[in-house]
Amino acid sequence: MSGRKIDERPVSIPEVKEIMDNIKEQMEKIDAEEGMSHFQEITYNFVNKFAKMETRIAKKIIKFLMNKHAIEELFAINVVNINPQAVSEIRSILEKSFTGKSLSDQQLEVILEELEDIKTS
User: Fold this and answer.
1) pLDDT of residue 114
2) Containing domain of residue 44, as a range?
3) Is pLDDT of 108 > 90?
4) C-alpha to C-alpha distance for 27 and 24, rounded to whole angstroms
5) Distance (Å, rounded) from C-alpha 40 to C-alpha 24?
6) What pLDDT is attached to residue 109?
7) CA-to-CA distance for 21 and 55, rounded, in angstroms?
8) How far apart are CA 119 and CA 51, in angstroms?
9) What is the pTM of this model?
10) Do 114 and 60 fall within a single domain?
11) Is residue 2 a part of any domain in this protein?
12) Is residue 38 within a helix (H) or strand (E), and if so which, with residue range?
C-alpha cells in the first residue's frame, strides 16, 4: 500500500492511536488476510503501548493548555504524550516554551491539578 500526504499537523500519541485504529479497521475490511503493512503494524503496537489517555481527553488537555495558559501547541502535545505527574516533570517539558519558562512552581502545581481534573471528568 502506498501512501500519499493529505495533511500535515502535529498530533498526540492518543490521536495517532485513534488514526491507527481506523486504518486497521479499514485494512481488515479491504483484505483481512494481508492487513496492515509492517511499518503500520509497528506504529500500531507502539501507540497502543504508549497512549496514556483517550483521544477525547488528550484533545481537551491540549485545547485547555493552549487557551488558558497560552502554551504552544507542540509543548501541549508533549504534556499529553508524557503525562507528567510532578512539577519537575512538567517543568522539564515546558522549559523551552515561551510561556512555560515563566511559570512558577505554584503555577505548575495548579496546572497539574487542573490536568488531573480534566482526566477524571
Assistant:
1) 98
2) 13-50
3) yes
4) 5
5) 9
6) 98
7) 12
8) 14
9) 0.88
10) yes
11) no
12) helix 38-50
pLDDT in tens, 70-91: 999 999 999 999 999 999 999 9
Q: What is the mean pLDDT of residues 32-44?
A: 88
Same domain, 39 and 67: no
Q: How confident is residue 2, by pLDDT bands cut at 50, 70 and 90? A: low
CA 31, CA 25: separation in Å to the nearest integer? Answer: 10
Determine the Cα–Cα distance for residues 76 and 69; give it in Å rounded to an integer. 10
Residue found under cell 499529553: 80
Query: Which residue do the cell numbers 512552581 mark?
Result: 105
Question: Residue 94 carries which side chain, given as an amino acid letter?
Answer: L
How far apart (Å, rounded) are the C-alpha atoms in residues 72 and 76?
A: 6
The grid cell for 16 is 495517532
Each residue of 45-54: pLDDT tens digit?
999 999 999 9
Q: Looking at the structure, do residues 61 and 115 belong to the same domain, yes or no?
A: yes
